[in-house]
Design brief:
The protein is α+β, with helices and mostly antiparallel strands. Helices cover 41% and strands 32% of the residues. It has a five-stranded mixed β-sheet, sandwiched between helices. It is globular.
Amino acid sequence: MNADEREFLNKLFEDAVGAAYEVANALGAGFLEKVYERALMRELLLRGHRVKAQAVYSVRNKGATVGEYFADLVVDGRLVIELKCADQLAKEHMAQCINYLRASGLKLALLINFQRPRIQWKRIVNEL
């Protein structure tokens, strides 16, 4: 990854985190995950980003598709966002994001938990 790509991804990530805080401040905690997904998608669109909801990525093994992953949001074709409404973020949530990155070939994911009054988020980088 070159310096320009790294800078672009960092700015995209920061904007996505800012959008998540905007949604959390407006809605608060307690809604279903789908509500936050729609609200975050709208906020990102208002900020000028291209956003795809429930983006499908095939999992391939030895030339055959063996499964599919559905990422909650993909922003500008570069950032996977996975939303949760859970008591806390777990290792399984991180593993899910890593698998999205592996299946998609993308380098960066944002995992967000909207369950608490203040959002929790993690940055996940695909080093491969």
